[in-house]
Amino acid sequence: MYVAGCDIGSLTAKAVILKDEEILGGVIMPVKPSAAESALIVMQRLLMDESLQLDDISCICSTGYGRMEIPFTDTNMSEISCHGLGAFKAGGNIRTIIDIGGQDCKAISIDASGRVIDFIMNDKCAAGTGRSLEMLAKTLGVPLEDLGRLSRRSRKPVSISSRCGIFMELEVLEALYRRKKTRDIARGIADAVAERAAALLGQIYCHEEVCITGGVSKNKAVVEAIEGRLGVSMVPLSIDHQLTGAYGAALYAHEYCIKNKVGETVTC
């Protein structure tokens, strides 16, 4: 039985296909103008990669900000629930998740079955999210994917103290005006993101088994800075950390099939 999860965020669209609970494949791509278009294209790419048709999929579960706008899904779940279950299944003993996505940051606590027991979300400002990192990388004149690598070369990080994305950009511009090294500004940005994530995590019960999900998980400087503040090492996942939500959605799709007996052969 094939099931799929489709995660439509503010910056990227992700999809995962499972075959009998085992990951068959996954795709990550930039979003299109609408959630429906993003979902259709990301699923088409994944189905093509795996030589499948949409009719081969028994159930599709959607998640993310665009989950209610996708016409071909059978069910939907919140991204908080999907990141919780996805991280739990991909990380073994995970009990706490930091999810830093395109426009918000979440701290999630889960139980021994991967179900959410507590969470807190900062969505009042884009500071410390993928969107703000994209903006600040552009201000620095470096590709977003190079921001983490660049900041890890820093020896004298520049302090970025603002808690607003706009004021963070002004601090970066001021540092550039003062001829601070790009790598030191980049490290200051990573430290600022880590400080916000750690502060958010401090508002819920934090187990030692912590992982980070979302696109910002690929910025190693941010991950290392969060580890330093928390005094823990992030648990690695068996999947691409950015696919965690889509993976969790696919797992919920599988549960939906079992509960509703979808795909079962009926004998008379």
Strand and helix map with partners:
Blueprint: E1 2-8, E2 12-19, E3 22-30, H1 35-49, E4 57-64, E5 75-76, H2 79-91, E6 96-100, E7 105-110, E8 116-122, H3 130-140, H4 147-151, H5 165-177, H6 182-201, E9 210-213, H7 220-230, H8 244-260
Parallel strand pairs: 1-4, 4-5, 6-9
Antiparallel strand pairs: 1-2, 2-3, 6-7, 7-8
Helix pairs in contact: 2-8, 3-5, 3-6, 6-7
- SS-derived structural category: alpha/beta
| Distance, first to last CA | 21 Å
Number of helices: 8
CATH-defined fold name of the largest domain:
Nucleotidyltransferase, domain 5
CATH superfamily heading of the largest domain: ATPase, nucleotide binding domain
Strand content: 15-25%
Kindly state the number of beta strands. Answer: 9
Strand order of the largest sheet: 3-2-1-4-5
Biggest sheet descriptor: 5 strands, mixed
CATH class of the largest domain: Alpha Beta
Radius of gyration: 19 Å
Quaternary organization: single chain
Shape: globular
Task: Outline the low-pLDDT stretches.
Answer: none
- How much helicity do the residues have? 25-40%
CATH architecture of the largest domain: 2-Layer Sandwich
Order of helices and strands: EEEHEEHEEEHHHHEHH
- Total domains, how many? 2
Mean pLDDT: 88
